[in-house]
Amino acid sequence: MKKKVILSGMRPTGKLHLGHWVGALSNWIDLQEKYNCFFMVADWHALMSEYKNPKSIKDITVDNVADWLVFGIDPEKSIIFRQSKILEHLELFMILSVITPLGWLSRCPTFKEQVKQLKEKDINTYAFLGYPVLQTSDIVLYKADYVPVGDDQLPHLELAREIVRRFSSLHKKKIFIEPQALLTKVSRLTGLDGRKMSKSYNNYISLDEEDESLENKVLGMFTDPARKRKKDPGHPEICNVFSYYKIVNSGLEREVKDWCTQAKKGCVECKKILLNSLKEFLVSKRDKKKEILKDKNKIYDILNKGEDKARKVAISTLDEVKKAAGLI
Ligand code: TRP
Ligand code: SF4
């Protein structure tokens, strides 16, 4: 039986942190065993919001892909590529743009929200309005069956399906598959201060965090606010520190619950133990990443090879599409 196809992407807009590990990367790594996976650096999408400082996109791309590799994305199993290197994304973007009603885009909740939220970035632009159309091209160009995303991306998946249906009915041809979202099952990891983990709140642990800042960050984490002294029993289920244990050392979950609710260990000690678990989880990968980054050409080689494979698929789909659209 042919393997089902998965496509997902990340925008290279900053360093990856534990939130990305929980929300996306760990999931990608599991999926590559069962599916035919395409993992994409969405650099055009990054440019839509970062165009005032585009210099960083190239460097962040290399840094992010290095994380993908050291955490377990295997270029022998999955196709990793940069969106901007496969020109077919833009051609398909155009072909899909001409059939996408403006109202579908201006009514898209993510568009309305982001323009309001990211005021300093001036994303009230022509390209940004088309963000979901480019995302649709990314997905359908490879005829992806499933798209692993967070729930914030569901409106884009719905739009992708609508665009696919419109294309099929206009051209009486079923070239594309209606993609399904594959929601990440793990809950979102909160940041060090209990808010959503995010670059803009500076409350994250990056995947290559250095020892000293890792220590400061972990020891400064918010805990159960009701637990003021060591002799007060704590409530692990509302404690942020406990949720990190679940991610990096789930084997300790029961013990932590026990020492917390029985007031056997204090929060400082509990955090120190978490710190050790985090180091065990992160340090070897961080060091491996430093090694890889000494020779960036290796990363570019991997990307180039992935792009050769992706391009073949893209060209073949686009050929069908252009015929259906009456272009060739
Ligand atoms: N919009 C996605 C995000 O911000 C990134 C992305 C671009 C993507 N193209 C995609 C995700 C295609 C899945 C499939 O997270
Ligand atoms: Fe949180 Fe650990 Fe303190 Fe319990 S002992 S409140 S789990 S930090």
Q: What report would you give on this structure?
A:
This protein has 328 residues and is mainly α. The chain starts with a strand and ends with a helix. It contains 14 helices and five strands. It has two domains: 5-189 and 296-324, Rossmann fold, CATH 3.40.50.620; 211-290, Tyrosyl-Transfer RNA Synthetase (Orthogonal Bundle). The strands form two sheets. The chain has a three-stranded parallel beta sheet with strand order 1-2-3. A two-stranded parallel ribbon has the order 4-5. Bound molecules: tryptophan and iron/sulfur cluster (SF4). Residues 7-9, 11, 42, 45, 135, 138-139, 147, 149, 153 line the site of tryptophan (TRP).
Descriptive labels:
single chain; two-stranded parallel ribbon; 54% helix; binds iron/sulfur cluster; Tyrosyl-Transfer RNA Synthetase; three-stranded parallel β-sheet; 2 domains; 5 strands; mainly alpha
How is this structure best summarized?
The protein is mostly helical and 328 residues long.
